Amino acid sequence: MADVVLYTKTYCPFSKETKEMLESKGVTYTEFVIDGDTALASEMETKSGRTDTPQVFINGTHIGSGDDLKALDSQ
């Protein structure tokens, strides 16, 4: 099974939507909540080059945002 990692914010509707999509497909994931954690937010930005959430990684490869994951899923 793929190693899926999400960087999220608790108040982000896109993060919630992405988690719900993964859960509906039975995909387990590791979640890093960056709320108020500047070090974790900086780690996410360094790895992804982006500051928006969620940011999705599969097997260590940056996929992008929740919209990017949805596009990948539809292929």
Mind explaining what this structure looks like?
- By secondary structure, the chain is an alpha+beta fold.
- Helix content is 43%, strand content 23%.
- It contains three helices and four strands.
- It has helices at residues 13-24, 38-48, 66-74; strands at residues 4-8, 30-33, 55-58, 61-64.
- The chain has a four-stranded mixed β-sheet, with helices on both faces.
- It starts with a strand and ends with a helix.
- The mean pLDDT is 96.
Question: Taking Cα atoms only, what radius of gyration do you get, to the nearest Å?
Answer: 11 Å
Low-confidence stretches are none
Terminal CA distance reads 19 Å
Could you give a short account of the major beta sheet?
4 strands, mixed
What's the overall average pLDDT, rounded? 96
How much of the sequence lies in strands comes to 15-25%
Strand order of the largest sheet: 2-1-3-4
Note the overall shape: globular
Q: How many helix segments?
A: 3
Q: Roughly what percent helix?
A: 40-55%
- Number of β-strand runs: 4
> How do the helices and strands follow one another from N- to C-terminus?
EHEHEEH
Structural class: alpha+beta
Structural features:
four-stranded mixed sheet; 75 residues; alpha+beta; globular; single chain
Write the layout of secondary structure elements.
Elements lengths: L3 E5 L4 H12 L5 E4 L4 H11 L6 E4 L2 E4 L1 H9 L1
Parallel strand pairs: 1-2
Antiparallel strand pairs: 1-3, 3-4
Helix pairs in contact: 1-3
